[in-house]
Amino acid sequence: MLKSKHLIGLEHFPTSDLNKIIDTSFKFKEILESPERKAILLKGKTIVNMFFENSTRTKISFTLAEKRLGADSINFSSSTSSVKKGETLKDTIQNIDAMKIDGAVIRHGHPGSALKLTEYIDGAVINAGDGSHEHPTQAILDMVTLKEKFGKIKNLKVGIIGDILNSRVARSDIFALKKLGAKIVVCGPSTLLPSNAKQLGVNITHNIEEVLSWCDVVIGLRIQLERMHLGRIPSKREYHSEFGLTYERISKLKKDIVIMHPGPMNRGVEIDSKIADSENAVILDQVLNGVASRMSILYLLLADKPENL
Q1: What is the DSSP code (8-state) at residue 263?
Q2: Maximum Cα–Cα distance for the chain, whole Å?
Q3: Mean of pLDDT values over 275-301
Q4: Using an 8 Å Cβ cutoff, are 132 and 167 in contact?
Q5: Which contiguous run of DSSP H or E holds residue 26?
Q6: Is the pLDDT of residue 104 over 90?
Q7: For residue range 175-218, what is the model confidence (pLDDT) as tens digits?
Q8: Contact 191/232 with Cβ under 8 angstroms?
């Protein structure tokens, strides 16, 4: 059992719950790699996936996790719902809750939307990304990937490079890594670093070579091209030159480092294709671990009497 009823964010999430989810994820990965690939542990449970923003990996991952657990999965799309007719978020949620659901996964453009959802439904709420606030399930799959690769997270040196300012993934990763004892450096242009980065308890640099020579793991973040009009970076080409995970930079290192990326990737902007497809990259491992970790989250939050598998 978890201490928490919901998974809204990792900033105040109990470390014991985080470790429980990570450890249970490995049990579900074993199941995913077995011939059956299923564990009917949530039969009779109904989960609604409420995505008010576009998503590929996260939405498919949750849907697959729910099916692998034997739950009834309903996908809600705002583009084809009564929200388009003017219905409020509150009314939409309360109507869905009246249908007796057990849990809801929500992605929304406004920070705090997942927390607000808990006021309107009785079931468990899982945040699949709320604006630029947090993306806790992405961070959890990242922690599973790191523990799988290194056997531990404590004292790992992790560099996070890119648009820290607007990245909900970066915030959740930082909270998780700190709870688990990793050392963190963030890197990017000054226009893409938050003013409170020091308050987050991380070191800051604008020198990518310095980060790469120091770290065991580097997490490259997507440059949000939809924000290019804000003038945060002069051009994609200049960003790639100054902060890109290029083949030239990585090949100069006198050590191997692990390359991670939450996706979607802008190849040729924040990362070279040759690096994304290299043996050092664990990007596809992150994808599979996303299904396993979301199975773990759903099971531990929604099973009537979750037990050690």
Answers
A1: S
A2: 59
A3: 97
A4: yes
A5: helix 15-32
A6: yes
A7: 999 999 999 999 999 888 888 777 788 999 999 999 999 999 99
A8: yes
What are the helix and strand counts (H, E) for the chain? 11, 9
Q: How many CB atoms lie within 10 A of CB 188?
A: 29
Considering only residues 75 and 261, tell me which one the structure prediction assigns the higher pLDDT: 261
Q: What is the CA radius of gyration of the chain?
A: 19
User: For 38, how many CA atoms within 13 A lie in the half-sphere containing its CB?
Assistant: 10
Share of the chain above pLDDT 90, in %: 72
**Euclidean distance between CA atoms 139 and 177, whole angstroms:** 9
Instruction: Kindly list the strands in the beta sheet with 217-220, ordered across the sheet, starting from the edge strand earlier in the chain.
Output: 203-205, 183-187, 157-161, 217-220, 258-260
Which residues are bridge partners to 226 per DSSP? Answer: none
The domain 136-283: what is its CATH number?
A: 3.40.50.1370
Averaged pLDDT of the chain: 91
Task: Locate 188 and state its tokens.
Answer: 């990017």
pLDDT confidence of residue 273: 97
DSSP structural state of residue 192: G
Structure tokens at 66: 């729910």
Question: Distances in Å between the alpha carbon of 24 and those of 9, 224, 231, 294?
Answer: 19, 33, 43, 10
pLDDT at 54 over 90: no
Is 15-135+287-302's fold the same as 136-283's? yes
Rounded Cα distance, 309 and 301, in Å: 15
Read off the pLDDT of residues 127-143 as tens digits, 9 standing for 90 and up.
999 998 999 999 999 99
- Give the residues across from 77 on adjacent strands: 51
Decide if domain 15-135+287-302 falls under CATH 3.40.30.10: no
Going from N- to C-terminal start, the domains of the chain cover: 15-135+287-302, 136-283
